[in-house]
Each structure stands twice: as C-alpha cells, then as structure tokens.
Amino acid sequence: MASLKNVLVTGGAGYVGSHVIYVLQKTRRYKVISIDNNHNSLSAALARVSQLSKSELPADATEIDWLSTEIDSHTCDLTKPEQIRAVFEKYGKGGIWGVIHIAAYKAVGESTEIPLTYYANNVSASISLLQIMDEFDCNRIVYSSSATVYGTPPIIPIPETTRLQADSPYGKTKVMTETIIEDMCRADKKWCALSLRYFNPAGAHPSGMIGEEPRGRPGNLLPLLAHMAVGRVKDAVLKVFGNDYPTPDGTCVRDYLHIMDLASGHVLALNALGPDSAVFPSDAPAFFKAYNLGKGKGVSVLQIVEAMRKATGFDYKYEIIGRRGGDVPDLTADPTLAEKELGFTAPADLETMCRDLWNFQSKHPLGYSEQ
Ligand SMILES: NC(=O)c1ccc[n+]([C@@H]2O[C@H](COP(=O)([O-])OP(=O)(O)OC[C@H]3O[C@@H](n4cnc5c(N)ncnc54)[C@H](O)[C@@H]3O)[C@@H](O)[C@H]2O)c1
To answer: Of 15, 22, 118, 170, which residue is the catalytic one?
Structure first.
C-alpha cells in the first residue's frame, strides 16, 4: 500500500497555511503536521480544513485517503526551540519529509514599531527551525517570502533578478531568512529550498468554509473591506492613502492573486524538491531558488474598492488622505519564471477573488470565532 509523506506546515492555522493544507490534502499524497501558536489564528480553521477535505473524498476512498485528511496539529511557538524539537521527536530522524515554513508576523507598519519582535519571530525562530530540521535529517524547505523583499523596485513587472532592498523591518526579515536558507543550501548540498515571493493573496476557498480570519482589525485592504461590508468594522469611511502616485488613477497598484492559486503553487514547489526535480538538476550550483507568485497584473486601490462594491453590494465611502510611509507605488510581479519552471499559473480574476471572499465572510460574519 502506498504511504503518505509527512509534511510539516508552520503557521498552518493562518490564512495562507489553512489553504495550503487543503491543497496538500487534496493530492492524497501527504500527511500534514501543523505547527501554530495561534498568535493570529484560531485552531478552528484546521478543523474546517479537515471537514472540507473529508467531505470531498469519493465513496471508494481508501484508508490512506482518509488518513490524508487528518492533521496532526501542534500548538507550538517557533520561538521556543524545545517545542519545535518535541514535534520532530515524535516523528524521529528522517520522519518528516519536508517543511513548508509559512509562520511569521506580517504587518509592515507594526514591524517599524517593534522591529526586535519581528526579527525574533521571523528570523531567530526560522534559524531554530532550520537547526532542528538538520538535527532530524529533514532538509527540504519551501519558504513563504514576500514581494516586500523588493522594496521600491526599479522595474515593473518585477523579475526575481531584481536587487533585494526591503525598506521595512518586516521585509528585511524576509530577505534575511531567504539569505540564511540560501547559504545553507550552498554550504551543504543535502539541503534544497524554494522561496516563494508572494504578491497579494486574496479570496477564499469557493465553498466559503475557510477564508481569511485575522485576529483583530484586518491590516490588509480586501479583508478590511469585507469586514466593513459585514459590519464588523464600523468605519463609515475608508481611508485611501494617497492618489498622487504615478499610477493610472493615482492610487497604489498591487498584484492580487487568488489564495487557491497561491496555495496550489506550494504543491508545485514541493514537487520541485523531490528526487526527479527539473528545477534542481544534480549539477546545480546551489539547491536554492526564489520564485514570484503573482498574476502579473496590477490593480489599484480604487479598482479593488469598486470590485468589492460589485461583490458585496455595499456602498463604500472613501476619502483620500496623505501617503502612508513605506507604501510603494506599484508592486506587480513578473511571474514567468514560476510558470516556466514550476508550471505555476494564477488564472482566477479579481471578480472571482472578491466573490469568494464575500462568500466566506457573508456565510461566517463572525469568522471562525462563531464556533
Ligand atoms: N497575506 C499576505 O498578504 C502575504 C503576502 C506576502 C507574504 N505573506 C507571508 O505569508 C505568510 C503567511 O501569511 P498569512 O497571511 O497566512 O498570515 P497569518 O497571520 O494568517 O498566518 C501566519 C500564521 O503563523 C502563526 N505564527 C506566527 N508566529 C508564530 C510562531 N512564533 N510560532 C508558531 N506560529 C506562529 C500565526 O498564528 C498565524 O496562524 C507569512 O510568512 C507572511 O509574511 C503573506
């Protein structure tokens, strides 16, 4: 009987993590181990992922198929090495095939106020994770990076060859962690790693069972608009930071991609870390590579507001205020490398992202906390 590969997902209960776990389960090839300290998530998300995966199993599902829908979930803080080690000890040396390292703090503004907290949580904790992986002969990692590594990029759309020059402490934690992982891969060829530079994930699983459910007020535009429409955020007016950028309508432009497309990219990345990888032929100089995961199409803040107005029927009012420090005019990906080498595509359009986001939010106005 075929067996499942154990894959550890850090930040598994979060927005990206929960959708990644769903797509991993859908392959029926992996058994997921999740680590999360629920700093920005609720473990109810994982229960919903399993419920959703089980509901999609065919009538003739095998025991292995059922096993693939289970999640071995650990409430574990990555800043506490002994807690990470306990998870690896459960599986023993070589027992965990690979890691998808998603957990991090992610608020750019907050990172400028409490930089040490960001470096400790995003960089030091990643070092502990890598050390313990090494101890347990687990040397494959897919890392969640971000478009913020590019800072204010000189070329749009942004290719991966662009110089990394993050402005914020958050962005710098992503550059540093990428660099550390790359150095490990250069030093020891048993390591192989892919860094996925996400642009702006949006939307939810089309069932509306799982979605983005941050603790507290959403920091990102789309969930903020969804919370306004559902009445959880009571702001009468949306603040738009600046309309004097060199973009078609003057507001900032970002590259949104559907969360399901982003999540699927992680399975492609895991495949590329396998033995028959075309990405890492045996004579490769280093088994590290970074890919942009985006649609390659920019949309402005005002276009987003309009798309959400159509999806929700909510009459958003907005006012233009001054630029926000740290915002760059345009972050649009050149995703051609990921398409060529990983087979990655992000076909879902903005309308679909807004529809699926609203489907989740309107079905669960209180999100996971209603459970
Ligand atoms: N969502 C975006 O717009 C976006 C864009 C680019 C990159 N990213 C990156 O993607 C990753 C996931 O983002 P997300 O939107 O899912 O965020 P999220 O906050 O929903 O998920 C992150 C998860 O990690 C957990 N976590 C944080 N610190 C931890 C620790 N020390 N130990 C254990 N768990 C911890 C949180 O509780 C949360 O569940 C992050 O690395 C983020 O930097 C996100």
So the answer is: 170
- 149 CB near ligand 1 (under 6 Å): no
36: Cβ below 6 Å to ligand 1? yes
Measure 165 CA to ligand 1 centroid, in angstroms: 21
- Which amino acid, one-letter code, is at 345? T
Burial 113-132 (b: 16+ CB within 10 A, else e): eeeeebbebbbbbbebbbeb
Helix 44-55 vs helix 15-27: angle between axes, to the nearest 10 degrees? 30
Q: What pLDDT, on a 0 to 100 scale, did the predictor assign at position 343?
A: 97
Q: Can you give the residue range of the structural domain that contains 11?
A: 5-370
30 is annotated as an active-site residue: no
- Distance, in Å, from the CA atom of 320 to the CA atom of 186, rounded to the nearest integer, reads 48
Alpha helices by DSSP H, listed for 5-80, are 15-27, 44-55, 63-68
Tens digit of each residue's pLDDT (9 = 90 or more) over 308-346: 999 999 999 999 999 988 789 999 999 999 999 999 999
213 close to ligand 1 (CB < 6 Angstrom): no
Task: Please tell me the total count of domains within the chain.
Answer: 1
Mean residue pLDDT across the chain: 95
Going by pLDDT thresholds of 50, 70 and 90, the confidence category of residue 371 is: very low
Tell the residue number behind the tokens 């313990």, with chain if given. Answer: 132
User: Where does 273-349 have alpha helices with state H?
Assistant: 301-312, 336-342
Q: Which residue spans within 37-167 are E strands per DSSP?
A: 71-75, 98-101, 140-146
Q: Which residue, 331, 348, 145, 356, is CA-closest to 257?
A: 348
Ligand 1: residue whose CA is nearest its atom 38: 14
Cβ–ligand 1 distance for 126 under 6 Å, the answer no
Nearest CA to ligand 1 atom 39: 14
Residue 18 belongs to a domain with what CATH number? Answer: 3.40.50.720
